[in-house]
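Continuing the batch. This is chain 6 of the set; chains 1 through 5 are on the previous pages. Same settings as before, nothing changed between runs. Recording input and output for traceability.
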Amino acid sequence: MVRTEYYHDPNAPTPNNMVVAASAVVCDDDGRILLQRRTDNGLWALPGGGMEMTESLPGCAVREVKEETGLDIEITGLVGTYTDPRNIIVYSDGEVRRQFNVCFVARVIGGTLAISGESTELRFVDPADLGAIDMHHTQRLRLTHYLERRPAPYLG
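Output for chain 6:
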């Protein structure tokens, strides 16, 4: 399935669905950040995805990171909430999604790094190298907020 993301684009289609999702900034012991190259748009992104009815948002982040990367994580903090109604995601199956994402900070506690069906590549990236990584603005915004070491989570 192909994914196209619109951000503050007046030509974006009207959403027909809202999905609550969680993502995580997962760092290794050297402070590098885990990114995945997505299969649906070819861009780099933080691991994450939609919450299931039976789980909490932190639990969703833990599950999604495990499914997408093979790593077990522990949530250690909150980057922020990302609920901009002008962030629209269109899928080739006809879904036009308004995203509601909560981004956590996490550390690896186990598992083995492994590519899933949702990614073509996984990589820990030094924060100084993030500018050269091809990613959507919304992903870069979460990483910027994380790297700013804000005293309080971003609420937006």
